Structures are given as structure tokens and as C-alpha cells.
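Input C-alpha cells:
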């Protein structure tokens, strides 16, 4: 692992504003670094109340969509909710099925199978829903790029409402309504809703018309799970949705979540965003990765204690198997890309790669080597791929240039996927690799660390940690605050972990002594002099049941 590029963010220059705000200067700096620069916005961000919610009718297509849903409700029409197999799609499906049932609607879920159907709408499924008496299909977390499928469905008499959060293509499906904050010309002020967030906005608009907005609290836990699991930025209304959902789960978790907490040893009342990111979300995702995403959906909506326990046991077990497969597949993929000399594009293909974990492996490769990565499950006729990228290379823009080679593709700048005839794979590999090499030529490829403030270790005392936690929950767009301290004296230094790849340090500055850990940085031990400049964040160490504040060191360099 190489050193990162350090980027110390500029300090707030308007000291009068800092003084008049009534907030600690460090907190103002942290808010400013996250794009919250007006004192009038400080309180709403920190309060995270309903003022963060935007009007759902600002979303293009909402009025037409609500009109058609009301028509279905009044006539007793069966509504199909067509979701996706990841945690975002599963929770979004549950939000609309449950949300419509609360007002007398008849809704049936459909979660596609990752291996046999893939992401997005398929004509065969839409035909089957129509034959079963479904007159209206509402998509969640999918549909905005499925132009041909929507056209065929509408022609046979099946109405489609699309709710999605992915980037649309140049051509938008001609559905009854397309509701997506990323649509060109959209007046909606926040574009980073998860798929479950867009589904929630549809429900919010529907309930508002009926004067029943209080019912939204019954599904807000699902919105929080999907938003966190999909790594949507915890900013603006996402922040409100996450915090309110976590409150509900801690106060009164739904049956399935309570059982999953029991199986994974999560402590009741202490769920936070990390609990969802590292435990709940992966368990729900494991169903869609290795088997059937409908299992995760059933866990979320079940009212049977026995079924909840059985499903939670199965999901926890399946997630452990997912972890095992990820480790084994990553080792194989890593060997492939290293053998090739770490080219600008880390492309690895194998028929033994499990399709459901290709994205996880691509993420790990990109994280470790800081290159765009494409992991492909190959088969005789059709191959499936997951892609992950770095800020210096827009992967979806690159794939668009080769759209003629794909059966289907989609995603965004940092993550994407595609399906293509296997015969097209050699051409894609050659031309995409060449494009990546050209665009990244001369670019110094190192991850960068945006540093919030330059401080000394003695300044970290008092309520500094509590101040940083006022910004939680953290995620993309609202990272855990990062600090830089220079000229720190190293009192002790030793390796830790089974492989000795981590470092444990005892550090001193100005008479203050701190413990610190540097994960995966033991390979830089030779560079560790007696005085270091360190980049880190603050964290609670729970080792041995004893809580202690320590430095989580992200990078270090010799002060000399």
C-alpha cells in the first residue's frame, strides 16, 4: 500500500461568521469542509429534522405517477412492485408493498434473480405479471435505462411507473411517469437519494394527498437500511432518513431485523450506521449475491417469529459463505492482475468467479491498487462484469463509448456493470484497456486524503471527539473528520495482527501521550523516524470490553 496524497482543506476565513455562529470553531470548520457554509444551515444539518425533506412533487413525473396510483387504488387493481436483488432494491420493494397495504392497496413484489435475470426489467417477467392480472408495475431501484422493455410492456397494456436513482441514458423510457432525481432538467434539489429514497418520496406524495403522512414512520427503518447499504451520501434528506430510521430500529426493531441482530450479535438499542454497513446490509445483500434476493425481502416483511428466526439464521450463514468466497476469489483475481504487471486497467476474467461477488472483488482491487478494476464472470455465450473506478477515471462514460458491444450496461462514474456476448470480450478488453491507459497517462495514481484541520495532539482533549460525532452518520460526502499533526514523537512502535501488517504506536506531543494504530501500514516501518507527521481520525477502541479513545492513523511520513 503506497502513501496517499495529502490535501489540507483551506481554513474558514470569515472569523466574524465563526464567532457569530455560536458554534465551536472546529465544528464550523468541519461543516464548512462538507459544503455547509451558511450559519443558517448549521442548525438544520445538526438537528437533522424534517426541514431537510424536500417537496416530493418537485420530482419530475410525480403528479402523473400519483394520479395513476390513485386510479389503481380506487379500482382495486393489483400493483406489481419490481425491485432489485441488492439491499437497496429489497428495502425499496418492501417500502412500497407495505406502504400501499397500509392504505388498502394490493401490491405484489417481484425481485429478479441475479444469476438468471440480472438487474433491470425483463420482458418475460413483465409478460408474466400481466398474465397474472397486474395492471400497473412500479419499478424501484431500476428501470430508467430499460427503454425497449418499457415500450413492449406499454404496448401490451401494462402501465409502468419508474422510480429509480441511476443515471438515465440519452433516451428515457416512455412510461406513465419516470421519477428519478437525476433526470435532465429536474427541479429536485437533491440528486443523491438511494433507490429506496425515491420510492419513499412516491409514498410521501401519496400519503400527503390522503392526509396520512404519519404512516411514513412505519417504513422509515427500511429507508435507512437501503440508503446506508447503497452508500448514498448521508447529507440533506438522506441524513434525516438515516437518523430517523436508526431511531426506530433502536426503539422498536421489526421482527426480522431483531432476529438478524440476535444472529449477528448486534446489541439492541445500539444500532448505528456502521452496524448497517458492515452487518445488516451485507446479510441482506448475501441473499441476492449467492441465492435469491426474495429471502431478504421476506425477512423484512414477515410477521411470524418462527419464519423470522429461520430466515435470519439462513442469511447470517449465507453471508459467512459470501465472505469465504470473496476471500478466495480476491486471491485468485489479485494473482492475475499482479502477474500482468498491474496495468492501468485491472481486468480479470474467469468462469469460476461467482457472479454475485464480482463487484466486491472489483472494489477490493481498486482499493488496494488504486486503479480501475473490471471483474468478469465468463461463460460460453454470455459474460457478466462488475466495474469499480477511481475519481480520475469515469467508468460509465468509458463504457458508453463501447455500448455497441454490450447486451446491457449501466451505473455511474465510480461503479458500473455490463453484460455482453462472450465473443465481444477480447475486443472490449483491448479497446477499454487502451482507453484507460490513454486517459491515465502521466497521472500520479495515489489515493488522496482530504484533511479537515491541522491540530496538535494536546488540542484533541476535552470534547473534541464528541464534537466530531455531531456530524454522524458518516459516509461518502460526509467522511469521518481527518486531522493532521506534525512533529509527533514516537515513543513505541510495534507490529500487530496475524500477518504483522499493522502497526501499534504510542505517540507524544506537548506532554500529551496517545495510543495509535496504523492498519496495513507496517510496510512503511522503515520510513518511521523518531518524529512523524501523521494523518488520522479519532475512534473508540472497545478491545477487551474497555472503551478508550485512540488515533486511527491513515498515513504517516517522517517529519524530516
Amino acid at each position: 500500500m503506497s502513501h496517499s496524497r495529502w490535501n489540507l482543506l483551506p481554513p474558514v476565513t470569515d472569523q466574524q461568521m465563526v464567532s457569530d455562529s455560536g458554534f465551536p470553531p472546529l465544528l464550523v470548520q468541519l461543516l464548512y469542509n462538507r459544503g455547509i457554509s451558511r450559519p443558517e444551515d448549521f442548525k438544520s444539518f445538526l438537528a437533522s429534522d424534517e426541514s431537510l425533506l424536500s417537496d416530493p412533487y418537485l420530482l419530475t413525473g410525480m403528479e402523473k405517477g400519483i394520479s395513476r396510483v390513485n386510479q389503481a387504488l380506487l379500482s382495486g387493481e393489483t400493483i406489481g412492485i419490481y425491485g432489485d436483488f441488492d439491499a437497496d432494491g429489497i428495502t425499496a420493494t418492501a417500502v412500497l408493498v407495505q406502504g400501499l397495504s397500509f392504505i388498502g392497496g394490493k401490491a405484489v413484489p417481484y425481485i429478479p434473480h441475479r444469476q438468471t435475470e440480472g438487474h433491470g426489467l425483463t420482458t418475460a417477467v413483465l409478460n408474466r405479471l400481466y398474465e397474472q392480472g397486474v395492471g400497473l408495475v412500479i419499478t424501484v431501484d431500476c428501470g430508467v435505462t430499460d427503454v425497449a422493455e418499457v415500450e413492449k410492456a406499454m404496448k401490451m397494456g401494462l402501465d409502468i411507473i419508474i422510480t429509480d436513482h441511476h443515471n438515465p441514458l440519452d433516451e428515457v423510457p416512455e412510461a406513465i411517469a419516470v421519477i428519478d432525481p437525476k433526470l435532465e432538467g429536474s427541479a429536485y434539489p437533491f440528486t443523491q437519494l438511494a433507490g429506496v429514497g425515491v420510492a419513499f418520496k412516491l409514498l410521501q406524495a401519496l400519503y400527503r394527498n390522503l392526509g396520512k403522512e404519519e404512516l411514513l414512520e412505519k417504513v422509515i427503518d427500511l429507508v435507512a437500511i437501503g440508503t446506508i447499504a447503497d452508500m448514498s451520501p448521508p447529507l440533506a434528506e438522506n441524513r434525516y432518513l438515516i437518523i430517523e430510521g436508526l431511531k426506530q430500529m433502536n426503539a422498536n426493531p421489526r421482527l426480522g431485523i431483531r432476529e438478524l441482530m440476535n444472529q449477528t450479535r448486534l446489541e439492541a438499542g445500539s444500532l448505528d450506521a456502521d452496524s448497517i454497513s458492515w452487518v445488516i446490509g451485507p446479510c441482506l445483500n448475501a441473499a441476492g449475491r449467492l441465492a435469491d434476493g426474495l429471502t431478504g425481502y421476506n425477512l423484512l416483511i414477515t410477521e411470524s417469529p418462527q419464519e423470522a428466526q429461520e430466515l435470519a439464521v439462513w442469511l447470517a450463514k449465507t453471508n459467512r459463505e459470501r465472505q469465504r468466497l470473496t476471500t478466495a476469489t480476491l486471491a485468485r483475481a489479485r494473482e492475475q492482475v499482479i502477474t500482468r504487471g498491474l496495468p492501468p486497467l485491472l481486468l480479470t476474467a474467469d468462469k469460476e468467479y461467482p457472479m454475485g461477488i464480482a463487484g466486491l472483488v472489483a472494489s477490493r482491487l481498486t482499493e488496494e491498487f488504486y486503479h480501475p478494476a473490471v471483474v468478469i464472470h465468463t461463460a460460453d455465450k454470455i459474460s457478466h462484469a462488475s466495474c469499480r473506478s477511481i475519481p480520475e477515471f469515469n467508468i460509465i462514460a468509458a463504457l458508453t463509448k463501447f455500448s455497441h458491444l454490450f447486451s446491457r450496461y449501466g451505473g455511474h462514474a465510480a461503479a458500473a456493470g455490463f453484460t455482453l456476448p462472450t465473443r465481444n470480450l477480447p475486443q472490449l478488453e483491448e479497446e477499454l484497456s487502451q482507453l484507460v491507459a490513454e486517459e491515465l497517462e502521466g497521472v500520479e495514481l495515489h489515493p488522496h486524503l482530504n484533511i479537515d484541520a491541522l491540530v496538535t495532539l494536546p488540542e484533541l482533549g476535552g470534547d473534541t471527539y464528541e464534537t466530531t460525532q455531531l456530524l454522524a452518520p458518516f459516509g461518502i460526502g460526509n467522511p469521518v473528520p481527518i486531522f493532521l499533526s506534525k512533529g509527533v514523537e514516537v515513543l513505541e512502535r510495534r507490529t500487530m495482527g496475524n500477518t504483522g501488517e499493522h502497526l501499534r504506536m504510542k505517540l507524544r506531543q506537548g506532554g500529551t501521550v496517545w495510543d495509535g494504530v496504523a492498519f496495513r501500514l507496517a510496510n512503511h516501518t522503515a520510513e518511521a523516524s523518531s518524529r512523524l507527521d501523521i494523518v488520522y481520525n479519532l475512534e473508540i477502541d472497545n478491545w477487551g470490553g474497555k472503551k478508550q479513545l485512540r488515533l486511527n492513523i491513515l498515513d504517516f511520513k517522517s517529519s524530516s
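The first helix runs from residue 15 to 21. The longest strand covers residues 483-496.
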